Amino acid sequence: MSRFILGSGSPRRLELLAQLGIVPDAVRPPDIDEDPSGAELPRPYCARMAREKVAAVDADADDVVLCADTTVALGRRILGKPADADEARAFLKLMSGRRHRVITAVAVRKGAQVWQKDVVSVVRMKNLSEPEISGYLATEDWRGKAGGYGIQGPASALIPWISGSFTGIVGLPLAETAGLLQAAGLKVWA
């Protein structure tokens, strides 16, 4: 009997899977080095992270493992998870009044076979005032989030426009994820 293993500690990914009625049999976040290498571009970096994560999860040959990585990119620059409020403030100032990309790569593994897809969405952040930046930082919602914000929380008030997958921006593009899980033999609509 195959099991479904989520290789992520993200509560948002658990919530998104629950929208499809999917509850993992196990949650095993992999421990890998997530630093970009040299001049690595955002999209290839994100795809590499998802592949490395899914390869690092311990699972039986008939288990289905899902991992994902979400990367915020401003041009060629990768905006990771801010280390502190000062870095989160710097990220918000960089994105203020501009468009940026949110890339989420999803990898699904069963045995030696891996299915992968990456989804790119575009987000426009409004021109942010200092009180808006300080107010958002005070919510602490920026912690542990790529680019220093989560669109599904208070930061939604800072984002007037998106193009692409809302669930991809949150951290798991559900349409693409459902297709990958079905390809691996997991019944999504059971």
Short description:
The chain has 190 residues and is an alpha/beta fold.
User: Rg to the nearest angstrom?
Assistant: 17 Å
* Class per helix and strand makeup: alpha/beta
Give the overall average pLDDT: 95
Total helix count? 6
Range of helix content: 25-40%
Please report which band the strand proportion falls in: under 5%, 5-15%, 15-25%, 25-35%, 35-45% or over 45%.
Answer: 15-25%
Tally of DSSP β-strands: 7
What is the global morphology? elongated
- Identify low-pLDDT runs: none
Helix-strand string: EHEHEEHEEHEHH
Amino- and carboxy-terminal Cα gap: 16 Å
Mind summarizing the main beta sheet? Answer: 7 strands, mixed
Task: Describe the protein's topology.
Layout: E1 4-6, H1 11-19, E2 26-27, H2 42-56, E3 64-74, E4 77-79, H3 85-95, E5 99-110, E6 113-124, H4 130-138, E7 161-163, H5 166-170, H6 174-183
Parallel strand pairs: 1-2, 1-3
Antiparallel strand pairs: 3-4, 3-5, 5-6, 6-7
